Amino acid sequence: MNPALRLRDPAAAPRLLLTVCVIVLLWPGFSLTEFDPASLFEERSRATIVKFVGTFFPLETSREFLGLVLKSTFETLAIATAGMAFAILIGWPLALVVTRSLSISRIGPGPGRVAGHSVRVPARFALMFFRSIPEVVWALLFVRAVGLGPAAGVLAIGVTYGGMLGKVYSEILESNDTRPVTALLETGGGRIAAFCYGMWPVALPELVSYSVYRWECAVRASVIMGFVGAGGLGQQMELSMRMLNGGEVSTILLTFLLLVVMADAVSALLRKVTS
Amino acid sequence: MRAAHWGVIAGLIAAVWASFAYLALDLVQLLSPEAQVQMWKYVVSFFPPDVSADYLRRVGQGTLETIAISAVGTALAAVLGLLLALPAAGRFGAVPRAIARLVLNFLRSIPELVWAALMVIAAGLGPFAGTLALAWHTTGVTGRLFAETLENTPSEPASALRLAGSPASLAFLYGTMPNVVPQLIAYTLYRWEINIRMAAILGVVGAGGLGQMLYFSLSLFQQPQAMTVIIAMLILVVIVDGASAWLRKRLAG
Amino acid sequence: MSLSFRKVSLEYANGVRAVHRIDCEIRAGERVAIIGPSGAGKTSLLRMLATALRPSSGTISVLDTNPWRLDRGRLRRLRSRIGMVHQAPPLPPRQRVVTAVLAGRLGQWPAWKSLASLLYPLDILGAERMLERMEIADKLFQRCDQLSGGQLQRVGVARVLYQRPDLILTDEPVSAVDPALSDRVIGELNREAIERGVTLVASLHAVDLALHRFPRIIGLRAGEIQFDLPPVRVSDGMLADLYASESRTVPTQDNQPLETLPAGVRRRNMFP
Are residues C100 and C206 in the same domain? Predict the structure, then answer.
């Protein structure tokens, strides 16, 4: 046989197939997304872009605007903190309900099996429902329900993060050594007692650490939610953007960056202190 | 518990109380009977969701648009990210490295939603704005990760090739890229999964896809239609989660 | 002179003196083995010949040129005529053997050919022939991380053979290869040098391989040349002195003691 024929690259066919697949999948995407970079350079859009970008510098640093920004920053921090408080209020009980290792009905015979199950499943479903809907969507819904402003943000963070906290809390509780808890439950101790003496001491550091980390995320999320009307720095930025005031937008952006860095530092500090 | 712990707890409680006070949230009013009835009425107005064939088709179109936004945006970001990662990894000297890193940090510090609003101003309403927004932000993220990967990969294969007379660019392609490509692809796919969720949301500022449909239907007080879109979002998220978990298991096992 | 060192010294940034005022000349087409204990400076010497390192003082001439007077383009062309087999094969783990071997000609191919070869290897036959000489033709499409250390070293040699350089440098090319096979690999390198009339400079850990295969032996210790002789004139005493700091016995490929000869008896001359 012609040696050149014998020695064909075995990887050639799969590679070609993969390339064709990728192209076939991406190609319609370009038309679906109305991908048109040339449009950016058209007269009208070019003028808008240049005008808008031109206003980004210098930053808006008038005293009254800076005061407004400071107030909004405090508002964002307050939304995040209050929202997290809500989230713990929602997520904590649900986590306790959902945690299998605290379930008396699962240990041996006795009444309450069906009842236990019928409470756990909806609780699990509720948690999943809360965190699967994107936080921005929750914010939109709450804005429509309770009006523009921080209340919507607090509620939105409470619900979304409540779902997240609930799931992770129950995972933390279940991942630790369950023998002390089981022992307490088997000898007739109530769920609360089993929790306080069997689980709490071991799980606490992890719970705190995760909650502090989530608070830091909540600060960022509060700004994003504010963008759709839930108060704080985000709402301020949206207003400035609508007025095409680039100077104000860049000031707020800078503040946002500083805020995120600060929240990161505070969260790291808290986690170190409480571990 | 140590005194420090008690101090921290006290501080946290104070912070929470201060937050509520600052926001002057009238919780009493929020939970009053009238408010509860209002809220209940609002919730009920979402059901049943609109499942007419015509609207379902539109939602389907919106879902495809969302997926396309995420795919094209992520693909663009992979290419741009790699291009920026080369100087950011120091391949062209110290000054380009600093500049590239600055650009990448700038791109990724601005949240996707803010990028989307900016792109709507620049490119107009619609999915193109969403695609660009995802592309810019994700370029910052992937570019930085690619740069770190490049910096941590051994340079011996490429330098040996250069010692044998190969031009620098080809030495990079033959000597460094084979080590780095698997990680690049894995991270790009991971980012795509995240971006599908993002693409669904970006529309609320007018950047196309399911988000834009949601925003319009809520603005027009068409709650049943909004419910359909929300359900579509949920289904999309669940399918993507499931598919990626399945894929991960297949690749690992 | 094809290669020459004139009072060449090399000092590393941390003050370690690798090579001290070496004078040496190698004609085109010669086959030279460099032996000596670890840290003697063998690798540094080879890397200077490969133009990877610049001497701290003195002049070096490679293929009748002073590489450090050349501009970038000419230096690159000079380097494409030098093939170095590294001690630790610099092969990317996920690259396939065929691509790794073909990379040897990146300095000679036009850009389009190099790029195209990434997508589909353009000279599979050529790569296979080199691998056959190293007795690993069956690994042609395997990934480098699926090979053993000794097999990787042989791929490294195959790459340099594919490059067809005018100067072959090898730095302990068979340290991980088993004794029978290593003799064959050294034999192939010698055959390549003889057939194409190119220069071969090999640093070897195993003294028996050096003595059996090369017509000129340079003994290096602590950065200085101890002797520069044909193998028949290398005595056991010289070898013992050379390796005294490292071990009591002279290293060989199969770890068996070097055949010692009674005083006065000459070594067998293996060359025509």
Answer: no
Rounded distance, CA B192 to CA B72, Å?
Answer: 9
Q: Is residue C269 part of a domain?
A: no
Task: Please provide the CATH number assigned to the domain covering A64-273.
Answer: 1.10.3720.10
> Domain check: are C237 and C179 in the same one?
yes
Q: Could you give all domains of chain B from N- to C-terminal order, each with its CATH number?
A: 53-252 (1.10.3720.10)
Positive/negative CA dihedral, C151, C153, C159, C164: negative
Query: Residue A150 half-sphere exposure, CB side, CA atoms within 13 Å?
Result: 25
Look at B123 and A238 and tell me if their CB atoms are within 8 Å.
no
B74 touches chain A (CB under 8 A): no
How far apart CA A244 and CA B176 sit, in angstroms, is 45
Q: Tell me the C-alpha to C-alpha distance, in Å, between residue B98 and each of A150, B94, B127, B138, B230.
A: 39, 6, 33, 19, 43
**Domain count within chain C:** 2
Q: Is the N-terminal amide bond of A14 cis, ω within 30° of 0?
A: no
Chain A interface disruption, residue of B32, B72, B213, most A CBs within 10 A: B72
Of C6, C73, C3, C59, the C-alpha closest to C34 is: C3
CB-CB contact of A221 with A135 (8 Å): yes
Backbone angles phi, psi at B207, to 5 degrees: -100, 35
Taking the C-alpha atoms of residue A175 and residue A181, their distance in angstroms, rounded to an integer, is: 12
Amino acid at B68: A
The verdict on residue C270 lying in a domain is no
Q: Which residues of B touch A48 (CB under 8 A)?
A: 121-122
If residue C57 lies in a helix (H) or strand (E), which one and from where to where?
strand C57-62
**How large is the ipTM?**
0.88
| Residue that the structure tokens 């601005």 belong to | B110
Give the structural domain span for C104: 88-164
CA distance linking residue B14 with residue A78, whole number of Å? 12
Amino acid making up residue C147: L
Which residue in A has a C-alpha nearest to residue C125's C-alpha?
A4
Q: Give C111→chain A minimum CA distance, Å.
A: 21
Residue A202: what residue type? V
Q: Is residue C261 part of a domain?
A: no
A-chain CB neighbours of C98 within 8 Å are: 9
Chains in contact with C, where contact means 3 or more Cβ–Cβ distances below 8 Å, are: A, B
Strands C224-229 and C57-62: unpaired
pLDDT tens, per residue, chain C with 272 residues: 689 999 999 998 888 888 999 999 999 999 999 999 988 889 999 999 999 999 999 999 999 999 999 999 999 999 999 999 999 999 999 999 999 999 999 999 999 999 999 989 999 999 999 999 999 999 999 999 999 999 999 999 999 999 999 999 999 888 888 888 888 899 999 999 999 999 999 999 888 889 888 999 999 998 999 999 998 888 888 888 888 877 777 888 777 777 655 555 555 555 54
Question: Encoding tokens for residue A162?
Answer: 């409540």
Cα dihedral A100, A106, A108, A111 sign: positive
* Full-model pTM: 0.83
A257 C-beta neighbours (distance < 10 Å), count = 14
Give the up-direction half-sphere exposure of residue A218: CA atoms within 13 A in the CB hemisphere: 33
Pick from C48, C16, C30, C17: which is nearest to C228 by CA? C30
**C54 found inside a domain:** yes
Q: Which of C209, C218, C231 is nearest to C34 (CA)?
A: C218
* Nearest CA-CA partner of B196 in B152, B251, B244, B155: B244
State how far the Cα of B70 lies from the Cα of A33, in Å rounded to an integer: 9
Query: Distance between CA C145 and CA B252 in Å, rounded?
Result: 18
* A131 contacts A214 by C-beta, under 8 angstroms: no
pLDDT, tens digit, 9 for 90 and up, residues C114-145: 999 998 999 999 999 999 999 999 999 999 99
